[in-house]
């Protein structure tokens, strides 16, 4: 039995998609906050169990009979550590034998503010006594391409990453890796630094958008404070805007780059190229 937390999220759904290729649906448990959103999973034969990251008792019940767990990190920055502690405590109480956790690229040395809660979770896992693997995911290509339509419309892609290389991969690339690690044996004790095969700068992203859209797009580098202010100005919540600006600054310091090709080795194919992702979103 393999369980996935956050199973109706974008990453969780993709992981289950890949697991269904190699595992019977009845052996997959989707742990979700709102079962109504998991109707499609239920129709495929996946077991849907309700639990919230905040509710340790519900998590313990949901993990009954589960051997392996994919702990997809909570989306609530600032509350992650406490929520992850609930999941780990519940896994221990339920007798889960293995946990794979979606951490952050080079979490132990990352300049990104996001690293703090990931490192804390990694330490909790080490202290739990449960066999585990760390999936230290780099940036999703989709994180930047969400701004592509606006950049093409206005002819400017803004950020604060300077010439920092970003070795991103798609959610599907990371999901395939997660499905393999939680679905196979032999991954306990491993730390996987996962990133795209080829790094790129935001200037190169702007050039690719320009090339494929046929409209001129240039990259404009801002200070972290100005970038955060611009994001808030278009309606992003303050916490999210500050996190994205901090992450761009971290990228300028090399925090989103890795050239180990660990991800492509794990999934057995090259990671999705930036040009292909741009083509898809356009």
TrEMBL record:
Q: Which InterPro entries does this one have?
A: NAD(P)-bd_dom_sf, NmrA-like, NmrA-type_oxidoreductase
Pfam families xref list: NmrA
Lineage, top-rank taxon, reads: Bacteria
Residue stretches making up the NmrA-like domain: 2-247
The protein's name is NmrA-like domain-containing protein
Origin species:
Enterobacter lignolyticus (strain SCF1)
């Amino acid at each position: 039995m393999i369980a996935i937390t956050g199973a109706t999220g974008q990453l969780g759904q993709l992981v289950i998609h890949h697991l269904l290729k190699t595992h019977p649906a009845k052996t997959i448990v989707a742990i979700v906050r709102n079962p109504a959103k998991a109707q499609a999973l239920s129709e495929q034969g996946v077991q849907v169990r309700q639990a919230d990251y905040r509710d340790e008792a519900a998590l313990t019940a949901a993990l009954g009979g589960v051997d392996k767990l994919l702990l997809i990190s909570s989306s609530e920055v600032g509350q992650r550590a406490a929520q992850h502690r609930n999941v780990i405590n519940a896994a221990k109480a339920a007798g889960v034998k293995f946990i794979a956790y979606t951490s952050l690229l080079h979490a132990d040395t990352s300049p990104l503010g996001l690293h703090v809660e990931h490192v804390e979770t990694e330490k909790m896992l080490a202290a739990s006594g449960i066999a585990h693997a760390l999936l230290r995911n780099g940036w999703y290509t989709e994180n930047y391409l969400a701004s592509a339509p606006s950049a093409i419309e206005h002819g400017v892609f803004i950020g604060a990453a300077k010439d920092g290389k970003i070795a991103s991969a798609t959610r599907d690339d990371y999901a395939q890796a997660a499905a393999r690690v939680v679905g196979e044996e032999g991954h306990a004790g491993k730390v996987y630094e996962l990133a795209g095969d080829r790094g790129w700068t935001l200037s190169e992203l702007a050039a690719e958008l320009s090339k494929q859209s046929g409209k001129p797009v240039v990259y404009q580098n801002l200070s972290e404070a100005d970038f955060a202010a611009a994001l808030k100005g278009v309606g992003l919540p303050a916490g999210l805007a500050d996190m994205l600006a901090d992450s761009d600054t971290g990228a300028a310091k090399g925090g989103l780059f890795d050239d180990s090709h660990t991800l492509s080795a794990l999934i057995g194919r090259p990671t999705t190229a930036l040009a292909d992702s741009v083509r898809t979103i356009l």
